[in-house]
């Protein structure tokens, strides 16, 4: 039986406040020319994300605050051109949002689950994202396949594991720029052995600010030696 059938009904969360945030002038200004695409992408996630196992049912009511703006917070810390590899892309957060906001970047989205790569390919086609390539598989399967300028990720693994997954995808001098929780500082010391193996720089914690009233996102940046 298809996983799309006989799925138990989920309680509907009130998303009125989140929709209002997404329609606000400050969000429009933040996203600029990418606003319409990001808004439409968000509506697709709102409609299909739960049914397709991309986001949890409770996330619909905080889609802008916790997901779309969280992804947008990464963009000011990225280069203006080059290759960005997003591992564990899932629903396209942050990869799709980054691609919409920075069309001059080349995005490679790596995701192991077929139903999620199918979704990503549909989104790429729907929005005509010529700067995006979707690859199915684990990050480790592509070690040596790229010399990326940046590898990013969101809620994929702890820093030690993420270092081993991400650094082999980077050129020397390239950066791992990742979205992490507020407790990421506690992951740095356990990751030092992995970081030293790539002659990495000291990890830097950055504050990803978007719009007033939305909590800044914690971003970690570290350069491969």
UniProtKB/TrEMBL annotation:
One of its GO terms (molecular function) is rRNA (guanine-N7-)-methyltransferase activity. S-adenosyl-L-methionine binds at residues 88, 93, 139-140, 154. Keywords: Cytoplasm, Methyltransferase, rRNA processing, S-adenosyl-L-methionine, Transferase. It is found in: Cytoplasm. The keyword Methyltransferase applies. HAMAP family: 16SrRNA_methyltr_G (MF_00074). This is Ribosomal RNA small subunit methyltransferase G. It comes from Xylanimonas ulmi.
């Amino acid at each position: 039986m298809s996983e799309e059938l006989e799925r138990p009904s989920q309680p509907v969360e009130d998303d009125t406040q989140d929709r209002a945030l997404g329609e606000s002038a400050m969000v429009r200004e933040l996203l600029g020319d990418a606003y319409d695409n990001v808004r439409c992408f968000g509506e697709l996630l709102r409609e299909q994300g739960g049914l397709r196992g991309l986001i949890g049912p409770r996330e619909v009511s905080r889609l802008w605050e916790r997901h779309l703006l969280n992804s947008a917070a990464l963009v000011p810390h990225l280069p203006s051109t080059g290759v960005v590899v997003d591992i564990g892309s899932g629903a396209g957060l942050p990869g799709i949002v980054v691609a919409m906001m920075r069309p001059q970047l080349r995005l490679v989205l790596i995701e192991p689950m077929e139903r999620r790569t199918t979704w990503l390919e549909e989104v790429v086609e729907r929005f005509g994202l010529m700067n995006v390539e979707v690859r199915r598989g684990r990050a480790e399967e592509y070690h040596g396949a790229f010399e990326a300028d940046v590898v990013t990720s969101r809620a994929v693994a702890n820093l030690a594991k993420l270092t081993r997954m991400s650094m082999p995808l980077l050129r020397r001098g390239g950066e791992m720029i990742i979205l992490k929780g507020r407790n990421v500082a506690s992951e740095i010391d356990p990751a030092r052995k992995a970081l030293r193996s790539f002659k990495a720089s000291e990890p830097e914690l950055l504050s990803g600010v978007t719009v007033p009233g939305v909590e800044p996102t914690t971003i970690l940046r570290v350069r491969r030696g």
